Amino acid sequence: MTAERLLSYFGESRFVPELRSRSKDGVLGEMARVLADEGEIGDPALLLEMIRRRESLGSTGLGKGVAVPHGRSTAATDTRIVFALSKKGVDFGALDNEPCRLFFLIVAPYEDRKHEYLPLLGKIVEVVSDEAVRERLLQVDSFGAFTQTIREAFGE
Amino acid sequence: MSDRVQRLAQLQDLELMIREVEDPASKMKEEALGFSVEGLAQLQNARSRLLKQIPKQDLRAYQRIRRKYDRAVVPVMNRICLGCFQALPTSVTRNVSEAGPLPICENCGRILYWL
Ligand SMILES: [Zn+2]
Description:
The complex is a heterodimer.
Chain A: H1 3-7, E1 15-16, H2 24-37, H3 44-56, E2 61-63, E3 66-67, E4 70-73, E5 80-90, E6 100-109, H4 117-128, H5 131-139, H6 143-153
Parallel strand pairs in A: 1-5, 3-6, 4-6
Antiparallel strand pairs in A: 2-3, 5-6
Chain B: H1 3-22, H2 24-32, H3 40-53, H4 56-68, E1 73-77, E2 80-81, E3 111-114
Parallel strand pairs in B: 1-3
Antiparallel strand pairs in B: 1-2
Helix pairs in contact in B: 1-3
């Protein structure tokens, strides 16, 4: 997967430089609303229910301040990623009990004809496994800075 | 959004999640990425609770369509059924009464969920 391909799932309207919410449930709601506000999702309630249920199987807080909530929903028509930051950090029930600061919400349609969902999840996990990339992502203040950081992570 | 269609969409999402948790290959792929995927029993409990809230005739329709297609409930965008990608006739509307028929695509027979 190239940087351009990965970046095609993100968007300026799906970039949240600072989350208002201070709770896990608040963060999930705030990020789901981003998709609803840009008309990508008909019904945020249906999406939110699916995301919360996925969290009940185990927190998607992977540790090192990163959370990747994800799932497939009837309410989605295309695969989309919302990227959000919380400088103060949010208790997400992460495996290492550290507060989460970097959030990637991945939502895919029920039918994934291009089989892009799991490889995408894998790519995000791979990108944020690099400490230097995490440090730089924490500093981004615009969507342009975000895309620049991702391109650099790919060595471009 | 009709509550009746909404509940069927909820059921469909839940059944999809159950299927993924039950599928060893898909579960292993997520676990290999560092995610924990436990709690099949609570998903099944949630499904049982949801089933009780769905009118019998809606459930029968949903299950009948599920035997034919992977998805029984499909989104509608710009008056296109995203199950079969055909345009819907103007007679099909998003308004569903409590007792009336479910909105169904005339072409493929799936239940329509307006985005
Ligand atoms: Zn159809």
